[in-house]
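User: Can you predict the 3D structure of Glycosyltransferase? Sequence below.
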Amino acid sequence: MKKKLAILIYSLASGGAERQVSILLKELIDTFDITLVLMNDTVFYNIPENTKIIYLEKSSPCESGIKKLLKLPSLGWKYKKILQDNKIEISFSLMTRPNYINIFSKLFGSKVKTIISERSQFSLQYSYGNLQSYTNKKLVKLYNYADVIVTNSKGNAKDLDENFSITAKMKTIYNVVDIDKIDQLKNEDIELRKQKFTFITIGRLDSGKNHKLLINAIQNLDANLWIIGDGELRNDLQQHIDTLNLQTKVLLLGRQENPYKFLSKSDCFVFGSNHEGFPNVLLEALACRLPIISTDCKSGPREILAPDNNMDSCLMKDIECAQYGILTPVNNEQIMKKAMTLMLNDHNLLESYQKKAILRAKYFEVETMIRQYIEVLD
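Assistant: Sure. Here are the predicted structure tokens for Glycosyltransferase:
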């Protein structure tokens, strides 16, 4: 008889953690009796038709931080009741607020195995000196009550240990990339006509992803930039593009249900993020055989592109031609431009990274990572 597993996440809107849940639902359905618990009714990704969904609430993404904070205990109590009523044996949550709710349910007397997944570099994600950052740096102590913490990078685990004294058992399981699915979808046609060498990036349009860095870096290059994603800075970024008169050079393509068809038509993936957990988009770019340029933010890109190097090293100047891609310092426009120029002009380097890309992507294939999830959950 299959064990009853609850997966708690805010929503299945477009995003890295949400995409991982859509993959887990498909891959774990034969092993566990799964109940998906959501806090918002947005479902962007395809999930198995027979997935049981329960809504803890149907909140608005625009809720104030204070309201979100005050609701945590009551949502924890409500979640505990859902676990009891559905005879759940294992509760697995992803992302910060669902993790707190999962822990609160345990503090309120839930007896189920409580597993949480931290998917960001916590000290950088909440480093902005505002009330949200201050509150989360206090609440993260709740993580010590989890039975297991799954991190999606070694850098995230180290951050929790060294900067927040989290002593709960931790296990790093890298994100999953479904190469077979990507291969099926990447050959779809796109209405956009590629005119010249094209860089592409994917990510939420927020300050942390630092798309403005890429827009500035490409100004004087003989290349185009496609940006897939949506978010609070869309209007600001479009205004910046217009101000620089780059309307025909830089295109905001919004959210795309099938980003792979754009990846496969591009020449190089470029990533300007200030901080990451473990960026799925780098794995997806590798699966599409794309060379990669990425900022060397503290967690994620180096583990993917330079796995044999010291994880603690971090670029401060110049570029690093690593084993599987080029790393650049965070928020350095001139060096990012230098890396993009190198990839644009050095065909041999470009071709070398193209050949290596799929080899690295295969390390993160579904079967390998799913086995690790089953070991932790069961």
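The chain has a mean pLDDT of 94. The longest strand covers residues 3-9.
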